[in-house]
Specification:
single chain, alpha/beta, Transcription Regulator spoIIAA, five-stranded mixed β-sheet, 4 helices, about 30% helix, globular, anti-sigma factor antagonist activity, MlaB-like_STAS, STAS_dom
């Protein structure tokens, strides 16, 4: 049974965490449009896949589009809670060239935190 995709944005320690949940398919297109980085934001964006059960090829295309928008805005992109299966797929399609995959949020913060010279968020 398909699970509706949704996301929740959380500003935490100088980074935007996008908490993803459900199945990432073409049906999530409208939700992905809402995940544009705010104007002026160059702070890192971390995609949290803890709640994701399934990603198909259309979902990969949506992820690629999101990563492109983030990078075009100057936002470094990371991912956490990515299963071994999806790590392999990210590698196969080349997404790991644009997204740094971390073992957990602590590792993402260590590398991407603003104290380490990464982006800003306009208030």
């Amino acid at each position: 049974m398909k699970k509706k995709f949704y996301s929740r944005s959380e500003w935490k320690e100088g980074m935007t965490f996008l908490r993803l949940s459900g199945d990432i398919t073409s049906e999530g297109k409208e939700e992905f449009k809402k995940m544009l980085p705010p104007d002026g934001q160059t702070a890192p964006v971390v995609l949290d896949f803890a709640g994701v059960d399934y990603v198909n090829s259309a979902g990969l295309a949506l992820l690629i589009g999101l990563v492109r928008r983030c990078r075009a805005s100057g936002c470094p992109v990371g991912a956490v809670n990515l299963s071994a299966h999806y790590r392999k797929i990210f590698h196969m399609v080349g997404l790991n060239d644009y997204i740094t995959v971390f073992d957990g949020e602590d590792a993402a913060r260590t590398v991407l935190a603003p104290e380490n010279g990464e982006g800003e968020r306009d208030a």
